[in-house]
Amino acid sequence: MYEVKLEAFTGPLDLLLHLIHRLEIDIYDIPMAELTAQYIDHIHAMKELELNEASEYLVMAATLLAIKSRMLLPIHEGEMEDAEFEVDGPDPREELVTKLIEYKKYKEAAIEFKELEENRAQVFTRPPSDLTGFVPDEQLALFDMNVNVYDMLSAFQKLLRRKQLKKPLSTRVARQEISVRAQMVAVIDSLKLSGGRANFSDLFPYEDKSTIIVTFLSLLELMKRHVVFVEQEHNFEDLTVILQKEDIGDELEQFDEQN
After folding, report:
1. How many domains does the chain have?
2. 3-class SS at 106?
3. Are 219 and 180 contacting, i.e. CB atoms less than 8 angstroms apart?
4. Which structural domain range is residue 182 located in?
5. What is d(CA 239, CA 199) in angstroms, rounded to the nearest whole number?
6. Over the stretch 226-242, which tens digit does the pLDDT of each residue have?
7. Of the chain's two ends, which shows fewer C-beta atoms within 10 Å, N or C?
């Protein structure tokens, strides 16, 4: 069984901050219905990939549903007078907003410390040398990624929805065992045929869910090994997969050794 560990999943608060940023939501006035729906979609995507999501993700999903339910509760006539004196009472979202703001502060501080660490690592007892002339531009471009794992999950969730809508009412599919290694080669071949660039959804011409999942995992492996590069020009637009290296013999050997 092929297992994947994604370092980008640092916790439910990290996922919530990503959704708030992507949906351009005011963190002080969160629309709980929309945020809860988007969060649960990501949980379902994790389930489709057969990732063992941590219990804190499910606890946060329950918390969001509880807050959403409290905001939907009507005020009865007998409670109207008391409600008039509780206009300034606690907002059900207040505790969540406080946690998000605190988490955001620590996350930004961690990024600053990471930058300081990286800068300090460049300091030696002799003046640093400029080595940019020895590194190809295309290799440097690999580190200028504007797509993270949450964006990949969103694209994967949209792909599954489109496949579900196009799925016939009744069908019979013969189960085939397809390896991640084989799909890595298939993705590279597809990119070569399309001139080195392809739309994310064009790499999934399959109807079988297991094949779609294995193809998605193979794409993540290729990204991790800097064989392909994924970009998104504007928010909510389709992802574009770009081939960076055609010969992946060494990468396949490393993959075989690690698995």
Report:
1. 2
2. helix
3. no
4. 135-258
5. 6
6. 899 888 877 777 889 99
7. N
